[in-house]
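User: Design a sequence. Structure:
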């Protein structure tokens, strides 16, 4: 009798593990076979504006049945400073409705730059409580899609607006005060603060805000090193694990991620949490763009933008 009971517990545990919520990395072959699925919405988040406006004149092509989210107008909060913060609940609900997404829609997101912007959309959706089992990231984006010779069209899909209501929120985001308390002031020594910007930004050689530098006690791993350069797909789990663990970013730590404006942050979050299976990863959406503008916050290797401009003349 006892063995039957424990067998039942084991079966239930395995069912729970297999159904655990997760953003899924899907291959272009999968999307090609599901392009016309009834409750599937394909969302493109391109880097540049010409993929959104004037596309017919410029010959910009897209995956069929795609709708588009503007990274800079739709996926930032322009009512706050800096506008790189993730959108408010009201902005998010309006965006979902406009894209034809309701609370039960399965969403596949893609972009043209390693998954940075598509990851931002999916992380925002997770933050606002969309079922992560219904969130998918296209591996390699449109770069891999084109390499495979899959169909392309010269316009986006017309969709009927829906109604979207945020009913819960997931605690994915942290603030500058969390980082200052937990990392800079050292109150939580088990936290790794991961800066996923390119090394020249981390070292204040490329200054994109009012000041350059990095948050004290952060370590640097450029997130796009986790992608293959030729087709923008993600590297193997073994390669990703080696990349992140080399500086102590391991699964037994709490990981806080940040970058310049929250795109690479989301990209690293997806790699760590959903490809590698790290248990506790948080996103600082304000990132360096916010930290740099709060002048009372400390920075290592601080260089003011005005100093850079004078030196460059």
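Assistant: Done.
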């Amino acid at each position: 009798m006892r063995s039957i009971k424990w067998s039942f517990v084991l079966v239930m545990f395995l069912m729970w593990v297999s159904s655990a919520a997760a953003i899924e990395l899907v291959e272009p072959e999968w999307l090609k076979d599901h392009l016309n699925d009834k409750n599937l919405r394909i969302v493109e988040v391109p880097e540049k504006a010409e993929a959104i406006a004037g596309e017919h004149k410029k010959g910009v092509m897209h995956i069929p049945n795609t709708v588009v989210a503007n990274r800079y107008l739709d996926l930032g909060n322009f009512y706050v400073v800096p506008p790189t913060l993730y959108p408010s609940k009201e902005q998010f609900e309006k965006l979902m409705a406009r894209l034809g997404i309701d609370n039960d829609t399965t969403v596949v997101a893609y972009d043209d730059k390693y998954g940075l912007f598509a990851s931002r959309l999916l992380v925002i959706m997770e933050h606002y409580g969309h079922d992560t089992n219904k969130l998918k990231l296209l591996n390699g984006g449109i770069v891999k899609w084109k390499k495979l010779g899959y169909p392309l069209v010269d316009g986006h899909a017309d969709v009927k607006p829906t109604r979207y209501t945020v009913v819960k929120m997931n605690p994915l985001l942290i603030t500058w005060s969390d980082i200052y308390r937990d990392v800079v002031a050292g109150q939580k020594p088990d936290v790794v603060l991961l800066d996923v910007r390119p090394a020249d930004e981390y070292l204040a050689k490329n200054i994109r805000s009012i000041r350059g530098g990095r948050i004290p006690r952060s370590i640097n791993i450029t997130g796009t090193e986790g992608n293959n350069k030729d087709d923008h797909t993600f590297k193997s789990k073994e390669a990703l694990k080696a990349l992140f663990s080399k500086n102590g970013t391991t699964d037994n730590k709490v990981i806080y991620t940040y970058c310049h404006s929250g795109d690479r942050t989301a990209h690293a979050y997806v790699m760590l949490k959903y490809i590698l299976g790290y248990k506790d990863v948080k996103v600082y959406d304000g990132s360096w763009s916010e930290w740099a503008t709060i002048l009372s916050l400390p920075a290592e290797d601080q260089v003011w933008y005005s100093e850079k401009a004078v030196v460059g003349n």
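Confidence is low (pLDDT under 50) at residues 7-19. The longest strand covers residues 40-44.
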